Amino acid sequence: MLRIKKRLLVSILTMTFMTVFLSDASAVSVHAEEELKPAKQCTFVIPSRFKPSSEKNLFIDNSYPMESGSIKYSVYYNGMDIVMTNREREEAEKKAEEKVIDSSGELTKKEYEELLSANYNKEYGTDVGYKVSAFDTIEIDGFPGYKIEASYKVGDEEPIYQTVYMIRSKFRTFTIIYQRAEDDECSESFEKSAETIHVM
């Protein structure tokens, strides 16, 4: 039971780690962000076998705790569409030179794996062997993004598998994480859910 709760916690932590990456990275072109289309929302169908948990935007298997599969959704908002005065805009541009708001457009497999691996190892206090097996660029409804397949294993527990969809727009980055243990029977449900992802 404690192990399963830990897996759900890690699903939440994964989202936290990626938010840190998006908000604290150090190299992105503001012009590149301006070339992206704006989007207000991302939608997808939650499989009927999943239900909302007490954590916002975290869905767990109806058979929890027997099944530990989970789906986590979040939106990173960069705040760049706020109407500002000329003075505020000048100050924002100066700050943008010192701190980057969103570097997801330059995300690489190596950077992603190193960031997540370091944070997972720190959380568990041991090397969990976090590995990215696939890192593909995708496009959904004209919006660019990534589909990332990764896994890790803690001690003698079952391996945990993640499929992450990160979709970029001018002001928002949408992230969906499908996570399951090796013996969870939800792979097909995850695939069908992913097919319904839309950005508008």
Q: How are the secondary structure elements laid out?
A:
Blueprint lengths: L1 H23 L5 H6 L6 E2 L6 E3 L5 E4 L8 E8 L8 H13 L10 H16 L6 E10 L2 E10 L7 E9 L3 E10 L5 H8 L3 E2 L1
Antiparallel strand pairs: 1-9, 2-3, 3-4, 4-8, 5-6, 6-7, 7-8
Helix pairs in contact: 1-4
Structure description:
By secondary structure, this protein is α+β, with helices and mostly antiparallel strands. It has one domain: Mog1/PsbP, alpha/beta/alpha sandwich (Protein Transport Mog1p, Chain A), CATH 3.40.1000. The chain is built from 5 helices and 9 strands; from the N terminus they run H-H-E-E-E-E-H-H-E-E-E-E-H-E. Strands 2-3-4-8-7-6-5 form a 7-stranded antiparallel sheet, with helices on both faces. Strand 5 and strand 6 form a beta hairpin. Helix 1 crosses helix 4. The longest helix has 23 residues. It starts with a helix and ends with a strand. 31% of the residues are buried.
What is the second-level CATH architecture?
3-Layer(aba) Sandwich
Give the fraction of residues assigned to helices.
25-40%
Distance between the termini: 39 Å
- Give the C-level CATH assignment: Alpha Beta
* Succession of helices and strands: HHEEEEHHEEEEHE
Which key terms come to mind for this protein?
200 residues, 7-stranded antiparallel beta sheet, 5 helices, alpha+beta, Protein Transport Mog1p, Chain A, two-stranded antiparallel ribbon, 9 strands
Give a brief description.
This protein has 200 residues and is an alpha+beta fold. The chain is built from five helices and nine strands; from the N terminus they run H-H-E-E-E-E-H-H-E-E-E-E-H-E.
